[in-house]
Amino acid sequence: MKIVSVECLVLDEEYPYVVINTDEGIIGFGECFRRSPYVTKTVIETVFTPLIIGKSPFSNNEIWEEMINSAATMGPLGTLLTAASGIDIALWDIKGKVLNQPIHKLIGGKQKDKISLYASSLRRDLSPKEEAVRVGKFLDKGFMAYKMHSANPSKIDDTLNDNTINTVKEIRKELGNQVEIMVDVNGAYSVSHAIEIGKQLEDLNVFHFEEPVKSMKDMEGLSRVSEKLDIPIAAGENAFTRWEHMRLFEYGKPDIMQPDVVKVGGITEHLRIESALTSKNAILTTHNTQPYGSTAAHAHIISTSNNYPYYQEYNIEKVSIKDNDSILDEKFEPIDGSIKVPESPGLGLAYNLNKMRERSVDKPTKLVDPRK
Length: 372
Hints:
CATH architecture of the largest domain: Alpha-Beta Barrel
Radius of gyration: 20 Å
Number of helices: 13
CATH topology of the largest domain: TIM Barrel
CATH class of the largest domain: Alpha Beta
Structural class: alpha/beta
């Protein structure tokens, strides 16, 4: 079996999907991280596609190394690795379909049938009372944990507009300790302010404090925050390769690491990252803001491992490819705060390629806020 074509479809001007065709008619689907989708598309179709046409879709390691080696002369790996992620996930999808096995069986076999999720809110425009009410609604839907983003990452220590502590207090007032609370400030604090806020979060029984400072830019500062606080510090969504994750873990000293399969280079590299980090006794959870390819790939990975002991992230905001006429022919969504691990071959998702092509836009027509 050989790869005969590779394309990247940018759906609704925001979501890049890789479609790989083989000479035996098996099609693989892979999702990339959503930022800079047209840069991702250009990399896939002009840099990576010539490298993999004619190769076997079973050659994950060879293809991954060739993509990374070709990217080495092109600068920072952010968008390049998100592009590689989509290709790698599509290759695993093909492999599972050929062998008639879900991906979790190809990487060791699942140990759990469903993955417990936390409701991840990406809104920053809610009052403390409004957010507390929202948390209650998701608790009623079976989500036993909730992550809030109330700080302003575009301005360090913007205390005038930061409702973090008041919001946590309001949630506790409304719901007590029925729900676990995570706080993610996306690097919005200085070291001293992060420690000050973190101590208050400890008193409010917050589950974890995520990216209190710019983690990849200030590992020494992150380490100081982690050493001063008892609350678990989470970081890693802006690390890409296994080497960056290991450097962050060693020098930033977060308690919880957060790789993202659509950022790090796909399933192949995600498994390597897990192996490297857990050799150092790291605890993992996934960063995940996309509901289909990313969520399914994470579910396969997490189901086979005991290294992800906590709730996993699920974006509760509206996503066009899910909420505005889904690109799937069969539902894939949480039930009672958990997502079922797919059992169909490959990723296990029933993508509708005709719908995807109809939703594909060749040229960008709008700007996307990079903070979302």
